[in-house]
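FAQ: What does the model actually see?

It sees only this:
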Amino acid sequence: MAEFAAAASTPRPLKIITGADSFGCNLKDALVSHLRSLNIDVEDLGNSSYYSIAAEVGRRVSAANSASPSSPSPQIRGLVACGTGVGVSIFANKFPGVFASTCLSTAEAINTRSINNCNVLAVSGMSTSPESAIEILDAWLNTPFKAPCPASNFGPWSEEISSFFDNSLEEMPKIGKETANESKEETLTPCSLCCLVKNRKLDPIDIIPGGSMKIVRESPTSAIVSFKAGSVEPAHHHTFGHDLVVMKGSKRVWNLSKKTKYDLGVGDYLFTPAGDVHRVKYFEDTEFFIKWEGQWDIFFDEDLEVAKSAIEKEAEDGFEWIK
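And it is asked to produce this:
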């Protein structure tokens, strides 16, 4: 459209994280295809309830942009869809530094990028056709922060408003983050497992890049394990089953033997039976305590590149998501 064609030179995001519920999945899939045709990297989380999928997209966008929350051109953005586009916007917005907006027109998409530095676009699977949604998405992608927009009658913002917008970039990401930190300080109690790992040096796991481990008991084996954000454990199994508790960060576990997958965050517990083949991806720097029922060992069932390829095609894996 002519109104935002001049903004097409704005830097586009390097990656967009997407997700939808059953009412928005078809529209989301059409937009994912369009994004990929533009050579934009897409991490499609698939479909789930509108609140859980939107929260997952919001959490990842928040974490990805935490190092530069005031950037006018966020490199990692989100795209969510449900029946109305409203529900997913509500739950994506529960994370610091996430500015999600429901857009039913290109004018709304241009306005929210210009005024709010919107980094998560929410669309309606029931009210918006794929053709209209692509126009909305393109407008959102091509509009820089503080650009002329319908709200400014497509003229430049005044110096006073422009200065207000600049200040908002610094102030908006703090909202929610300060409250969350205060709440943590009020409720935080000493954790025995965290005390166990404190001041212990973990040794690199040479066979899995990004991992390190400190065995605290040999048999049955107990250990503190750490993985860097983005690390992947290829599918593998153990002679003995194991229990784990996440102490820091977040991860996803695919149990290939049972065709189930689990998202684990701080405080979450998971038992994996002996012999079950499982694959893991780490979304943040993550630490967990793990205890096997016997001596630790590991047998790989795929290599790292195969694992990464399978994770990229997660939306097609047919696994049951266990909440």
